[in-house]
Amino acid sequence: HAKLERDRISTYAPEFDINTVERLRLLADLRTALDSDQLHVVYQPQVDLHDLHTVGVEALVRWEHPERGLVPPDEFIPLAENSGLIFPLTALVLDTALEELARWRAAGDEIRLAVNLSARHLSDSALPSQVAAALARHDVPSSALVLEVTETGILSDPARADLVIREVRELGVEIAIDDYGTGNASLSYLKRLEIDELKVDRSFVSSIGDDRHDLIIVRSTVALALALGLRVVAEGIEDDATVETLRGLGRVIGQGYHLGRPGAPEEISARLARERTA
Ligand code: C2E
Ligand code: CA
Ligand code: CA
Ligand code: CA
């Protein structure tokens, strides 16, 4: 019996151990990264599809690991969430991005900034006062900030999420539902929650040119959201045909590689300057 146990361990343990060790190492590195300038923020334009003007940017975190190179957020955000490092990480992104936003706005561009929140923030009663303090530090009007939350983030503890969202909105900060359509119970909380913006997930948007069902889903989602008085952002626009199709659906804001890849703050400044003189 003991031998059986041993065999099983020797069969399954190594893989498990490597993953665990790997994860722990990455986590330790992330802790270091937070204190040593390895994390930076890039900004992806959000564009009014009717006149192609930049109306906002989404802040996206990047990790330039000294040995591994660029680690994608999909790999380290979950680690940050599980370990609690997501709190200092979000604080860093918020602070960095608000500083850039203040600069852009000082140049005369009344754009909005969107920052991603994790599920953990929606049960953190300290969030509203931290957001208020960050806005005050950079002297940015609260209405220029949009916080993006996901359906799954809300559903993990709906009552507390409701409360945090309400307090954040009382500051004048706006709330967007990110990746809309990929979670559950969407319609019920659209009715109940007070939100400002809906971001239609890229998995529907990027295929509206060749998937009739996706087109139907996006068309009715946009109609519903606009009828509810929400701002609509379509994510994952990768070609001009998609822009044309979305234009026909009403007043939609677009985001995607075709309209602008995530870029350094200087790239956004240059883009805004170009638009100002155009
Ligand atoms: P998300 O919030 O849905 O962000 C949009 C993602 O789609 C970004 O990936 C962006 O680069 C990518 N994207 C934009 N346009 C296109 C397109 O046309 N085609 C395709 N295929 N992709 C496009 P990224 O930057 O790798 O971020 C991945 C996810 O990581 C984000 O998804 C978000 O959930 C998370 N994330 C990124 N930055 C942060 C952050 O600062 N805090 C938190 N909590 N999560 C973040
Ligand atoms: Ca987002
Ligand atoms: Ca998204
Ligand atoms: Ca996503």
Estimate the strand proportion.
15-25%
**Cα end-to-end separation:** 78 Å
Assembly state: single chain
Order of strands, widest sheet: 1-2-4-5-6-7-8-9
Bound molecules: ligand C2E, calcium ion
Task: Give structural notes.
This protein has 278 residues and is of the alpha/beta class. The chain has helices at residues 2-35, 73-83, 86-106, 127-138, 151-155, 158-170, 186-192, 202-205, 212-227, 240-247, 265-277; strands at residues 39-48, 54-65, 69-71, 112-116, 145-150, 174-180, 197-200, 231-234, 253-254. Strands 1-2-4-5-6-7-8-9 form an eight-stranded mixed beta barrel, surrounded by five helices. Helix 10 links the parallel strand 8 and strand 9 (253-254). Helix 1 packs across helix 2, helix 3 (86-106) packs parallel to helix 4 (127-138) and helix 4 packs parallel to helix 6. The longest helix has 34 residues, at 2-35. It is globular, with a radius of gyration of 21 Å. 34% of the residues are buried. The model has no long low-confidence stretch (mean pLDDT 91). Bound molecules: ligand C2E and calcium ion (3 copies). Residues 23-276 form the EAL domain. Residues 269-278 have a biased composition (Basic and acidic residues). This is EAL domain-containing protein.
What's the helix and strand layout?
Elements: H1 2-35, E1 39-48, E2 54-65, E3 69-71, H2 73-83, H3 86-106, E4 112-116, H4 127-138, E5 145-150, H5 151-155, H6 158-170, E6 174-180, H7 186-192, E7 197-200, H8 202-205, H9 212-227, E8 231-234, H10 240-247, E9 253-254, H11 265-277
Parallel strand pairs: 2-4, 4-5, 5-6, 6-7, 7-8, 8-9
Antiparallel strand pairs: 1-2, 1-9, 2-3
